[in-house]
Amino acid sequence: MGFMNKQFFRVGFSLLMAFWLVLGTFTQPAVALTAEQKLVSEVWRIVNRSYLDETFNHQNWAAVRQKVLEKPLKDSNATYTAIGTMLKSLDDPFTRFLDPEQYRSLQVNTSGELTGVGLQIALNGETGKLEVVAPIAGSPADKAGIKPRDRILKIEGVPTENLTLDEAATKMRGPSGSLVTLVIERDGEAETEIRLKRDRIALNPVVSELRVSTEGTPIGYLRLTQFNANASTELAHAISSLEKKGAAAYILDLRNNPGGLLQAGIEIARLWLDSGTIVYTVNRQGIQGSFEASGSALTNDPLVILVNQGTASASEILAGALQDNARAQLVGETTFGKGLIQSLFELSDGSGLAVTIAKYETPQHRDINKLGIKPDKVISQPAINREQIGSEADLQYQAAVKLLVEKSVVAGKA
Questions:
Q1: How far is the C-alpha of 172 from the C-alpha of 115, rounded, in Å?
Q2: How far apart are alpha carbons 62 and 44 in whole angstroms?
Q3: Angle between helices 314-324 and 262-270 (to 10 degrees)
Q4: DSSP label at 32?
Q5: How far apart are the first and last CA of the chain?
Q6: DSSP, res 31
Q7: Which of 27, 88, 103, 310 has the smallest count of CB within 10 Å of its CB?
Q8: How many other C-beta atoms can be found within 10 angstroms of the C-beta atom of residue 227?
């Protein structure tokens, strides 16, 4: 009997221990995440929720986070590097982390003013090289003759192949009057070292002028250099002014316009369209959203849009919308081909995150990413300087004028 009691006690004690161990497992408090780990998790959650590619570049996205969190993150620099590595696995140069300084710089850029050399840049998805989308008109880079598709090999002696897009942009920015040296590569030419003096670049994106063709047609010439927060308002003012001056036709010059804010592109399309779809957006679930004209066109006069290889992003949204709605004819060269939409998120420590959340399609459901938009009239021309824009040397501009004169004659306006 005593033996039986001892056996029962041992079994009972074992069960009690097992129960206590299990209970202890469930009641053990979770290990608190460090501030660095919280930031990594914050970035991971945003990408997990919003990123266009639901396969996350054909990888286990949860496992990517776990791998990052397993390593010690001793400070913010280590954390930023780890986040950059995590995002790099997506193989998308447009989904990127911005440290607090880079994030503030981007906000300044879209707000209408910056200090630097005046280059819009992108990473070529095929070669991985840092490529010029377009120089900002009148900027130090523009005056130095830097062109769309030029490759930037070095900034201040640092090879750009080791830099992210934002690191490269940060290196080119700096106080007005300071100098920066770039090494540029161009097709068919030897590498060139260019020394630029940084300057404050006022991003007034609209140039407008009433011109009269040799046949007597009054043409409103508009050059839009960027889609920043001021673009729609400034262009509306310019169109209204040209209408009062008697413009009978328009040329909208989007050459070397690298884009900018999606909403600015939509608002500007509404200045030209009374009705019709402007753009479709497609997220990772395949759900399509659309933006429509609002019946607020400022003019119905004939319109020709000038485009080239430096016409990108929001410029392509606008050009595609007006082409597909038969509101404008396009003249020039096939555009850059950036059909992805990024959303900007502010993170808890003041840094930022740009995430590709959707792609866009033109009203006729053309996906132009990496393909670009082909003009109605293809006109290639040798490189011209800023002073030659709109002159006899500007073959694309002259072709646009010819089209508008023909339209005016048909309409009996000449």
A1: 9
A2: 8
A3: 30
A4: P
A5: 121
A6: P
A7: 27
A8: 29
Task: For 18, list phi and psi in degrees, rounded to 5.
Answer: -65, -45
Instruction: Sheet with 249-253: list strands edge to edge.
Output: 206-212, 218-224, 249-253, 303-307, 329-332, 377-378
Amino acid at 342: Q
CA-CA-CA-CA torsion for 382, 385, 387, 391, nearest 10 degrees? Answer: 10
State whether residue 391 is helix, strand or coil.
coil
337-394 per-position pLDDT tens digit:
999 999 999 999 999 999 999 999 999 999 999 899 999 999 999 888 777 999 999 9
Place of tokens 């080239």: 308
Neighbours of 36 (CB within 10 A): 20
SS3 400: helix
- Residue-wise pLDDT for 230-254, tens only, equals 899 999 999 999 999 999 999 999 9
Q: What is the pTM of this model?
A: 0.69
**Token reading at 86:** 């995590």
C-alpha dist (Å) from residue 364 to 248, 265, 298: 28, 17, 24
**How does DSSP classify residue 33?**
P
Two structure tokens written together for 293:
């004209």
CB neighbours (10 Å) of residue 298?
15
Q: List, as own/partner pairs, every contact residues 404-409 make where C-beta atoms lie below 8 angstroms and the sequence separation is at least 24, other chains included.
A: 404/213, 404/217, 404/219, 404/249, 404/250, 404/251, 404/302, 404/304, 405/213, 405/215, 405/217, 407/249, 407/302, 408/215, 408/217, 408/248, 408/249, 408/302, 409/215
- State the helix-helix crossing angle for 262-270 and 231-244, rounded to 10 degrees: 20
Q: Are 191 and 184 in contact (CB under 8 A)?
A: yes
